[in-house]
């Protein structure tokens, strides 16, 4: 009998990591032991007491009943595209060159990076930052070029560190604002400095603004593309977070900047869009219901998140060996650990000992020598209180 030869995977997959989901393997092993689990690891509002607004559901349902269930145009249906354009203009975006609807913001990010970056070139990514970017960069056989957010300055990007990291192979600067995993919201002066850096070095800015309506303490969101119509910016957004529809997988990208220099890039994006056919057709009709709607779901959503943010900030800073910068937006906190040993081992042992599931900071990037973990504070307060009690008790027993 012939021996079956191993099917070797592509080398490009070797360095792909996604800490948010990877840690679920440990959580599942622990769940099977019968331990009660408290999940603070995935930013899915619908797993808790948040619901997709009814007008979005009605709009998608109506589209299905009207048999809008075939393929749509590759870039999206006109009502959705026009709604995104109106929203972009309200945010101050000018020189809009293209808009495209995608299967979640994640597909928009992957399409844009694929259209822009060659093997061996690098992209400046925030550290801490959302691990999708580093996973896609690894798949493209490009180079991750992390720049550090300044924990002492509310997790704002550090312009000096960004300048120091730029080289002849740097193609783009990724900005996640509000940031995942820290919950920071960039101030406008800092954003203007990033625009100057991008213009000086001919970089494309990729601005992930998926949490732009989830801000606390009267904070305001500024789209970096609104600050200079002549810098190339791709702005990403979608229905996942602001509208509690992550499983709908509806996102979009907005290309702004100078017309002629952007034309080849825009055409490359559209070649990929055409090759993958289209995003979910009927669900695209929820975009106008969201962006042109009254956002009446937001006050209650923000009130819940504000209470849970305050609880998280207070409780984390009461635990010896843990400190936490107050998040300004989104629904994440990124507490710092002062412990012996590494944060990945700490998280795995926390899960096994308590059933509390968080994500190690090393999965998002961090300044070498520092240790953190990410909390998703979407669950109700009584769940968070129980989880934070468990974290406090676990810290008292940790010896590295």
Question: Could you write a compact summary of the structure shown?
Answer:
The chain is an alpha/beta fold. The protein has 2 domains: 11-51 and 297-397, Aspartate Aminotransferase, domain 1 (Alpha-Beta Complex); 54-291, Type I PLP-dependent aspartate aminotransferase-like (Major domain) (Aspartate Aminotransferase, domain 2), CATH 3.40.640.10.
Folded structure, characterized:
The protein has 400 residues and is of the alpha/beta class. It has two domains: 11-51 and 297-397, Alpha-Beta Complex (Aspartate Aminotransferase, domain 1), CATH 3.90.1150; 54-291, Type I PLP-dependent aspartate aminotransferase-like (Major domain) (Aspartate Aminotransferase, domain 2, 3-Layer(aba) Sandwich). Helix content is 38%, strand content 16%. The strands form four sheets. The protein has an eight-stranded mixed β-sheet with strand order 2-9-8-7-6-3-4-5, with helices on both faces. It has a three-stranded antiparallel β-sheet with strand order 11-15-14. Strands 1-13 form a two-stranded parallel ribbon. Strand 3 (122-127), helix 6 and strand 4 (143-150) form a beta-alpha-beta unit. The longest helix is centred in the C-terminal third of the chain and has 21 residues, at 298-318. It is globular.
